[in-house]
Amino acid sequence: MSQKKHKSVLPYVISILIVVLIILLVYLILNRLFPDLTGMLARGDETEIAEYLEEQGMWKGIAVIYLICLLQVASIVIPGMAIQISAGLIYGWWRAFLICYFGFVSGQSLVFYAARALHRKIDEYMEGMKAVQKLTAMINSNNPSFTVALACMVPGVPNGSIPYVASRAHIRVSRFAAAVASTSWIQILCNCCAGHFLIRGQYFYTVISLAFQICLTIFVTTHRDAIRPFYEKW
User: Fold this and answer.
1) What does the pLDDT look like over 207-234, one tens digit per residue?
2) pTM above 0.70, yes or no
3) Is 141 within 8 Å of 175 (Cβ atoms)?
4) Is the Cβ–Cβ distance between 172 and 147 less than 8 Å?
5) Angle made by CA atoms 17, 106, 119, in degrees to the nearest 5
6) What is the chain's alpha carbon radius of gyration, rounded to the nearest angstrom?
C-alpha cells in the first residue's frame, strides 16, 4: 500500500521540482545578466529600475520586463506596480501595457495550472490547511470567476497569491485565465500610464491615472451584484 502511495506521489514531486527549477532558472538568468536588478526590485524604486533597464537596450529590456512579470506571479513578493510604472517610464504606456499585460496573464495561468496539478494530490498528505480551506470555501460560496476578476482589480492585493488560492476553488484553467484577463488590464494600464506621464513631468495625469483605478475598483465593488451575473454565464 505504501509503495502505491509513493508511486502516486512521485509525479507530483517531480512536478514541484520542475516548477522550482523554472523559477530558479528565471531568477539566475536575471541575476546573471542584470546583477543589480534584484536589489532594485527589492527597493521598489521605479525611476532607478527604469534608468537601469533603459541602459540595457530596447529588446533586452522588454525581455527582462516580461520575465520579471512571470517571476512576480511565481514569487509573490516582487512588486508588480513598480515593474509596470518602470515599463511606462521607458517604453510609453501602450508598449509597456502589452508587455506587462501578457506577462501577467500568462504568468498567472501557468502558476494556476501548476498549482492545480500539485494541490490535488499533495493536499491528501498535508495537514494544517484550515486557513486555506476556509478561504477556498469563501471563493466557492461566491462566483469563483468573479472573485478572481475582482481580486485582480484591487490595488495592494498581492496578485501573486491569486493563482495559488484560486487553484483550490471550483474553476477551470480557461475560466481562470479569462477572469484574470478581463480585469487585470485596468490596474496594469493605469500603472503604465502613470509611468508614461511621470517621466514627462505631467504629474496631474499621473495622479489621475492612479486615482482612476481606485475609483473604478470602488465602482465595481459597490455594483458587484449587477456585474456578477456576467461572470455566471461563463
Assistant:
1) 999 999 889 989 988 988 888 888 877 6
2) yes
3) no
4) no
5) 40
6) 19
**Do the Cβ atoms of 146 and 78 come closer than 8 Å?**
no
Q: What is the pLDDT of residue 54?
A: 73
User: Among all chains, which residue has been given the C-alpha cell 515593474?
Assistant: 83
Residue 10 CB burial class (10 angstroms; 0-12, 13-18, ≥19): exposed
Task: List the Cα angle 18/23/29 in 5-degree steps.
Answer: 120
Burial 104-114 (b: 16+ CB within 10 A, else e): bbbbbbbbbeb
CA neighbor of 89 nearest in space, from 171, 230, 170, 206: 206
In total, the chain counts a number of residues equal to 234
Please give the full DSSP string across the chain, using - where no structure is assigned. Answer: -HHHHHHHHHHHHHHHHHHHHHHHHHHHHHHHH-TTHHHHHHHT-HHHHHHHHHHT-HHHHHHHHHHHHHHHHHHS-S-HHHHHHHHHHHH-HHHHHHHHHHHHHHHHHHHHHHHHHHHHHHGGG----HHHHHHHHHHHHS-HHHHHHHHTTSTTS-GGGHHHHHTTSS--HHHHHHHHHHHHHHHHHHHHHHHHHHHTT-HHHHHHHHHHHHHHHHHHHHTHHHHHHHHHT-
**Closest Cα to residue 50, out of 104, 97, 87, 81?**
87
Cell 495622479 found at: 207
